[in-house]
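In the current project phase, work has continued on tokenised descriptions of protein folds. One protein thus recorded appears below exactly as we store it.

——
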Amino acid sequence: MKRYQSDHRIVMTLDAGGTNLRFSAIKGGNELVKPITKNTCGHELDKSLKNIISGFFEIKVQLDEEPVAISFGFPGPTDYKNGIIGDLINLPAYRGGVALGAMLEEKFEVPVFINNDADLFTYGEAIAGLLPYMNSLLEKEGSSRRYRNLIGGTFGSGFGGGIVIQEELLTGDNSAQAEINRMWNHLYPDYSVEESVSSKGVRRVYAREAGISVNEAPSAKEIYEIGMGTKDGNELAAQKAYEELGRAAGNAFAQAATLIDGLVVIGGGLSGAWKLFMPALIKEMNTVFHSFDNEKIDRLEMKVFNLMDEKGLGGFLQERSTLIQVPFSNKKVNYNTEKKVGVGITRLGTSRATAIGAYVFALRRLDS
């Protein structure tokens, strides 16, 4: 992030969700204005587009200089390279394709970059959030380990994902990279993981465990409060609901981590409930497989640590290395004997991380 702190270019940003649109403008990594929020109106295209246009205009009139680009995230996969939004489950008004990028370029006469919101969230956390924070802690501890890969997940009305490899955002050939929501749900084999890692999944399990209908179930936020004992309700059912979320998410992250080998960061509206879901998530990632020779095999090459827990963070930061002799030489080299990854919650906040990711993505595209 340091390389952009002295950058004087302004980028207008938007964090677009199924419910709300959050507009801002960033210069040198800092927000220049108080963010503006409007309704997404995902079922009414005309209203939705007018809200997007007016939101950016309201941001622009507050700026002392002209912005060099617009950059923002939208939920779900679509044709981001051509700036087209379409066929999103939670935004039915956009089905069939809407040339949103071209529309905004015509209105504001600047380049427009659109990406998946969870991808930009992960990118922001890799640039200025969890990834540099953990590396700074490792440096303070005198550890030789540094991390450059990050897997991101957003827990909310749905389950979004993003991947950063060697500090670069992974973009797929079909704008469908890191669609973790389409992974297998090992708790319910005929369903996707998003059926469990979502607010609807939390409400469904709570209703089942409490013996009530889903329509009678409280909100996911209220279920968290019930599970923490700060609100009246079925505490065991609430804890079970978030435990299932943790187990399903842990399975998905473990599958991703076998390929990516990096830290995991979680954001989204349900991330604040980490005290209820994180133990089950970490346990799932650290499960053991068996071979047909009755041998136990760790599910991952790496041990997974809860970075939100004092004991887990301490274990992650601890250096386990030894000096070994170089064959046919008097020299010795350091051998790091333990492979580790960790799971943490957003350091920046989901919206700010998404805005930072959008800002840097735009600048890098302009510079290239």
User: Anything to note?
Assistant: The longest strand covers residues 20-27. The chain has two domains: 2-116, 130-346. Residues 235-260 form the longest helix (26 residues). The chain has a mean pLDDT of 94.
